[in-house]
Design brief:
The protein is an alpha/beta fold. Helices cover 53% and strands 10% of the residues. The strands form 2 sheets. Strands 1-8-5-4-2-3 form a 6-stranded parallel β-sheet, sandwiched between helices. Strands 6-7 form a two-stranded antiparallel sheet.
């Protein structure tokens, strides 16, 4: 038996921030990063909250790839303040941290407080300021162990935000290289959800729409950050992709990207972008042009090519067309074609590659990859991605 779940209420379009002035609460705990405070973006949030006479505090210690220590500190501050609403403002790191803080706070209170009123779930509202992770609608949170250089994906329905507020204006000032990285993260979510072993008609519909939105709008958003239509469409694509992969899960691309990010501190979207053409080639596993039996993944990739109007007279051509199209986008976005080009030293890569392959194999995302990889195959794939061969 299969199911499709979606519990987050999404507010979008003109005036969506007004939702914050309508909260039926007394105390709001805002989780964000230092830049949101320094740039004044936080004021757009607090101004709306204040209209409802809500007391609030701002926890702005979030950094990229939030650590266990940051989450622990957030829990401590939150427990002292005792809010009834948590608002996450920022990219995937801020939203992931807020999810973890809320979830562990609830578990700690359940173990220490007998009063049921104090144990009720606190409402979580996510306001993304990048168009990439889709974290505002997923039940996934990625937390990093800095000591071990390992990223841990936490997966639980309890992590899924109650509300998401999409405001395209909040991403209009995002630098173009971040637009590129996060946009490719969206595309990777879409493609992995579409070829996942858990894909369904419901997730396919979402992934297909989001893929088209990315191909139509990402380059425009990259070239002109003030193109509000392109920004809006990419923001929508990110959220739609989040709903898709939250139900269908992901694959090897993300399994490998998690460990690349943890070991070498490359942004998650950039790691996904570099990996994507290689992982498609690996999963498709096409031996020759006239192959009589194509893999499930190859057929699915070819469907995407057809969806985009790319040459796909047969499965082989469809897969190759999709890879070429993605490489053309990467070139337009000035994203390197290999890990070596991205500045990772050869000796560092060789020292870590075996462990990275083992970690990628055990990553929960890899479990729904359409091709079951072996450790040796992942090592070989890492070498291809490093040297671009």
């Amino acid at each position: 038996m299969e199911s499709f779940n979606f519990k987050t209420q999404v507010f979008f379009g003109e005036g969506s921030l007004k939702r914050l002035s309508q909260l039926n609460c007394h105390k709001a705990f805002i989780v964000t990063d230092p830049f949101m405070v320094k740039s004044g973006v936080i004021n757009k949030i607090t101004d709306e909250i204040s209209k409802g006479n809500v007391e609030y505090i701002v926890f702005s210690d979030i950094v990229p790839d939030p650590s266990v220590e940051i989450v622990a500190k957030g829990i401590e501050v939150m427990m002292k303040f005792n809010p009834d609403v948590v608002i996450a403002l920022g990219g995937g790191s801020a939203i992931d941290a807020a999810k973890a803080i809320c979830n562990f706070n609830l578990k700690l209170k359940a173990n220490t407080v007998s009063n049921m009123e104090n144990n009720k779930k606190i409402k979580l509202i996510a306001i993304p300021t990048t168009s990439g992770t889709g974290s505002e609608v997923t039940s996934i949170s990625v937390i990093t162990d800095k000591n071990k250089n390992i990223k841990y994906p936490l997966i639980s329905d309890e992590l899924q935000p109650d509300e998401a507020i999409l405001v395209a204006e909040l991403v209009s000032t995002v630098p173009n290289f971040i637009t590129a990285d996060t946009g490719m993260d969206v595309l990777t979510h879409d493609i992995e959800a579409f070829v996942s072993t858990r894909a369904t008609d419901y997730t396919d519909a979402l992934a297909e729409k989001s893929i088209k939105l990315v191909f139509q709008n990402l380059i425009n958003a990259y070239r002109d950050g003030n193109d509000l239509e392109a920004r809006t469409k990419m923001h929508n694509a990110s959220c739609i992709a989040g709903i898709a992969f939250n139900n269908a899960s992901l694959g090897l691309n993300h399994g490998m990207a998690h460990t690349i990010g943890a070991k070498f501190h490359i942004s998650h979207g950039r790691a996904n972008a570099i990996l994507l053409p290689y992982v498609i080639e690996f999963n498709a596993d096409i031996k020759d042009f006239n192959s009589s039996e194509y893999t499930y993944a190859a057929k699915r990739y070819s469907e995407i090519a057809k969806l985009l109007g790319l040459p796909a007279s047969n499965v082989y051509q469809g897969v190759k067309s999709l890879i070429i199209a993605i490489n053309m986008i990467l070139k337009e976005l000035n994203i390197p074609a290999s890990l070596k080009e991205n500045g990772i030293k050869e000796e560092d890569f060789k020292m870590e590659v075996s462990e990275m392959a083992s970690i990628a194999l055990e990553d929960r995302c890899t479990q729904t990859n359409p091709r079951v990889p072996k450790t040796e195959e992942i090592i070989d794939l890492f070498y291809q991605v490093y040297y671009n061969n």
